[in-house]
Amino acid sequence: MNKIKILIIFGTRPEAIKMAPLVQELKKRNNFFDCTIAVTAQHREMLDQVLSLFNIRADHDLNIMTDKQTLFGITTTALLGLGQVLDKVKPDMVIVHGDTTTTFAGALAAFYYKVKVGHVEAGLRTHNKWLPFPEEMNRKLTGSLADIHFSPTETAKKNLLKEGVNPENIIVTGNTVIDALQTTVKKNFVFSTAALNDIDYTKEKVVLVTAHRRENLGKPLDDICHGLKKLADDFDDIKIVYPVHLNPAVQNTVFDVLDNHERILLLNPLDTDEMHNLMARSYMVITDSGGLQEEAPSLGKPVLVLRNETERPEAVDAGTVKVIGTEINTIYKEAARLLTDKDEYGKMANSVNPYGDGCASRRIADFLLYYFGITKSKPEEFRS
């Protein structure tokens, strides 16, 4: 039997975190799959951290990251480079993840070579092409090119069905990030970032913050920072820990407003295992990240989302995530409520996580075997 040749493409740290468990699952089944990894390195340093953590070696590394890179540059450079990779590998299927520019470029390159596309984390929608930008259109365009849709939730599947996707080509898998958390979070974890080991997690309520999305740059991020500063000024039992994205537009705003506050710890971006273990020890999470909306609920942490819309409504419906926008007083009010109202905190912290059971990668691999005719039955879908 000829092995199924799979080319997995990703380029950013969030993609790598969520694709790593799938890479490991496919490589475990090397009697069925010939798995090749191509990275664009749309993010360089942060991507390398994840590859090292999960012991993954890229077979093709385009290394496209440049200073002040633009969407035009990322898209065209990735597309040209991935075309060359496809010409060498000649895969049976390309698998991409989520909503990055690398994802769209990878799917488009596969289409040009008439290679089938599998889309992991398929079907997320805000139904507003500008929010988040450019991610909403990246995932919609990728969805139009995909042959198989690995949806993390039933809601995502319903979005695809409304768009006319054949239900036979969709499977609800759960989110692969839950698979990743099972290997990274450890009870006796020691942080390599020394300042995190100095925090007394039993006495201080750690508020983990990330904010760096493109649509929040400028005044929204400035407002976010002033809301956080007000919180730190008024609550003496908290420690705000903010790993700050390396983008100068983020760094300049954040350090201008929040630096040198005794209850605010500004850090460089954390390695994935550090981030996951910090999240596990935190009191709550305030973020504009999509991935943290999925990760934190699985660890029982309430999430306040610094956006006006989310493509991940399942946790909002479940009650563990709340979308609060970027207005200063709203950020303060919503965070203060969770810091002072035990009942409100308990309702969010104890809600059921709708995003997975740690078996998403296995379901994806099983479906690939079914799709290529190796097995006869479609695997059971994830039910939250």
UniProtKB/TrEMBL annotation:
Family indicated by similarity: Belongs to the UDP-N-acetylglucosamine 2-epimerase family.
Protein name: UDP-N-acetylglucosamine 2-epimerase (non-hydrolyzing)
Coiled coil region boundaries: none
Single GO term (MF): UDP-N-acetylglucosamine 2-epimerase activity
Cross-referenced InterPro entries: UDP_GlcNAc_Epimerase_2_dom, WecB-like
Entry keyword set: Isomerase
UDP-N-acetylglucosamine 2-epimerase domain ranges (all copies): 28-368
E.C. number(s) listed in UniProt: 5.1.3.14
Family matches, as Pfam families: Epimerase_2
